[in-house]
Fold:
Amino acid sequence: MRMTRIVGAATAALLCGAVAGGLHGCATSPSDAETAARAATALKASFNARGQAGLDRLDQDETQKVCSEYANRPLPASVAEKIQQVNLATIRYPADGTLVGDWKNGEKIAQSGQGFQFSDDPKVLAGANCYACHQLTPQELSFGTIGPSLYRFGKVRGFTDETRKYAWGKVYNADAFAACSNMPRFGHSRILTEQQIRDVVALLVDPASPVNQ
Amino acid sequence: MIARLRIAAAIALGVTAVAIGGAFAQSSTVDEIAKYREALQDGNPAELWEARGEEMWTTPRGPKRVSFATCDLGLGPGVVKGAYAALPRYFADAKSVMDLETRLVWCMVNQQGISEGDATKIKFGDGSARRSDLEALAAYVTSQSRGVEMKVPVNEPHVRDMYRLGEQMFFYRGGTHDFSCATCHGEDGKRIRLQDLPNLTKTEGAQKAYTTWPAYRVSQGELRTFQWRLNDCFRQQRFPDLVFGSEASIALTTYLAGRANGAPYNGPAIKR
Structure:
């Protein structure tokens, strides 16, 4: 057992060195990397596909993999920068250039936590559940605190093209601006449609939105 | 007991009205919820599950007509007092680390002659007619550790291995939303909507959370076990269906139970 461990650890260390230049980072000790690999394998054997949630949900992309690896220790600046670059490249802006939709619909999307759970109806459009983690409008008292308050998002930043573009990008792929963000990548991961993102952006940046009152 | 339940229901309605009304400042809503939680501690319907589980524990069951008197939860055949506070643990007869629920299933299959399919047919009740024997048995066994200090044998090599596996899984991001357990349970003082989230990476947070499961869930009218708690967390994480008694479920339970070591076990509790 002990021998196997040491050999496994050495292999992990080699792999670690070989890919150090890429996005994939390295665990502090090889035995951590070995445990991580075992954990990933055990996880895949521990779930059943159900409803719309298939086993592919357990397959990590590089961002998820690296962020898991560094979840419990400081993320080196170079790794963070690489994650942000990779994710920034995924952001697609609408072909017609319209970034801002209807804030009233955006508010409905912000309130809804429906979507992508195995118990959810896949035919119903998903919500963004913004209020689960953020304060937005002053009218809604039931808001979470995992993310920062977004009250007066547009007012504070200014109702400019730059603010609108940033809001679109942040909703589309939050990891482009803050590596290993807790926020889902709503556009990149196809959680929201293009029109839904417009409406959520409107909730944040429309001067008439209750967020900016 | 019935009178207590009615009181709990009335309080639940009152709190809902406050929350929906929204006319109150948020702090007062939070205060009301705190009061509601306090009031709930007075009468816990989990006692009904405990009583049903106790009866099951002593009754001969299955094709072999054997009771749980021969079931070893780690402290010897039939010993329940304090057993839960030292679970999960390694069981040499099963050659694996088991939590309470998987051990109960093991005893049903290997000692009572019940098929695994039958033993796990109803893992979680639905709050009414569809009742789970496992939930009742878990309620009884855990109640017999109330006040007992958590002492999961994390230095035993098999358990330590499982603990480390669980730790890795706790930080595993995946699914459509990039969520891991740590997304919601990795920082102090966070809330999802108005619901406080324990920081399970800290000893105090893990102790407070782990030692209050199983729990009677008022909103579901059901006694919920830790296997259920994990399954429903993963549902909200947008992961697939966590298999009852799977390696991931045992690893995560071992990690969280181990982190709760040193605190008195305080369940089954009552929650919103």
In short: Residues 2-74 of chain A form one domain. Chain A touches chain B through 48 residues (CB under 8 Å). Chain A has two domains: 2-74, 103-212. The beta strands of chain A are 47-48.
